[in-house]
Structure formats: structure tokens, C-alpha cells
Amino acid sequence: MNQSAENSVKSRAVFLDRDGTLIEDRGDLRDISEVVFFPDTFDALRRLQDSYMLFIVTNQSGIGKGSIRAAEADKVNAFVFEQLQKEGVHIRDVYCCPHRREELCACIKPKTYFLERAAREYGLDLFRSFSVGDHPHDVFLAENVGGIGIYVLTGHGEKHRGELPSDRIVLPGIREACDWILERPA
Q: Is 19 considered catalytic here?
């Protein structure tokens, strides 16, 4: 492939929910001491990043509700990013919606604001990209841009499973989700 053809090829991405997908869901996290990564997170994402750009898209409605401050959420997001980096996982960007669902903002999942922004900024092919999370909104987020959503049963996954149409991809956790993605043809 010549250089100009290589430059025109768009990259694939995986958009990852934070709480309940990468780390245990412990409510509105205020402090980095509350962050607990799932055991499979680092190894799974290290394998995945060879073929996909990785992003975190997190809803932190506790900011809008007043139960945590934006600075606290930012500190936790930065810590998660830094810990992933230390473990050899390269996250391209972290996107955080601070709004309550009632605010009808443009950025809360399953709205595609952050995916479209990432596509513009990083040259992504959203049709060949994935979203992984423990809430139906994570699945619909990918579907809303023509990608594939994967539902994991960690975090709130068991609680919200009944809200997900029965024909969607449902897997036990992040390791299985990454395995499933890597089995797909390029």
C-alpha cells in the first residue's frame, strides 16, 4: 500500500466504560483510594491495543447531582488513565459526561457526541469500532454510530440485563469482551 493510501485508512477503536467495566463500580468515586481494577483489565487491554485505539467514555452524573465535585471525578479519571499507562495500556483520551440524565445534554450515553468527537480528532472508522460496558446505554452508544456494542455482566451488568434486547452480545467481563473483539476479522 502506498503512503497516501495508508494515510487514508481510518483506525478502529474500542470505547470503554469506566465503572463496572474496567474498575469495580463503587458509586460516585471521590478519591483514588476507592479505585479497584478488575483482575483481567490490564492484560485484556494490552492485547486489544495492538489492533484498536482505546478510549474511555464515562458518565459521572454524581457531578450533576452534587454528590461529587468535578475535580474529584477528574482526579479519579486521571488516576485510572495513569494506572493503565503504567501497566502498558495506552488510552488515547478520556471523555466524561458530568450531567444528570434529566439535563438532556448532548454528551450522555447513548448519545454519540464523544464518539463523533473522537472520530474527527483521531480519524476513526466508527462502523468498525466497538463499545464495551455494563449498561445498555454502552451497547446503544456503539449501535447509534453503526458500530458494535458489547455488554458485560460485571458492575451493574446483571442488574440491567433485562433492559437489553435478547439478541445483543453479552459476555462475562472485559477479558471475554476483548477476546470476542479480537476474533473479528479486520
A: yes
Angle between helix 41-48 and 174-182 (nearest 10): 20
**CATH H superfamily, domain 3-182:** HAD superfamily/HAD-like (3.40.50.1000)
Domain boundaries, the chain: 3-182
Alpha-carbon span 125 to 8, nearest angstrom: 11
- From residue 18, give the alpha-carbon distance in Å to each of 7, 58, 117, 120, 134: 31, 6, 18, 22, 9
- Decide if 107 contacts 114 (C-beta within 8 A): yes
Residues of the chain with confidence (pLDDT) below 70: 1-9, 186
Q: What is the pLDDT of residue 9?
A: 65
Catalytic residue list contains 134: no
- pLDDT reported for residue 4: 35
Q: Return the bridge partners of 56, or none.
A: 16, 94
Look up residue 134 and give its amino acid. D
pLDDT digits (tens, 9 = 90+) for 140-185: 999 999 999 999 999 999 999 999 999 999 999 999 999 999 998 7
| Alpha helix positions (H), the chain | 3-8, 41-48, 61-65, 70-86, 113-122, 136-143, 157-160, 174-182
Rounded to an integer, what distance in angstroms lies between the CA atom of residue 153 and that of residue 158?
5
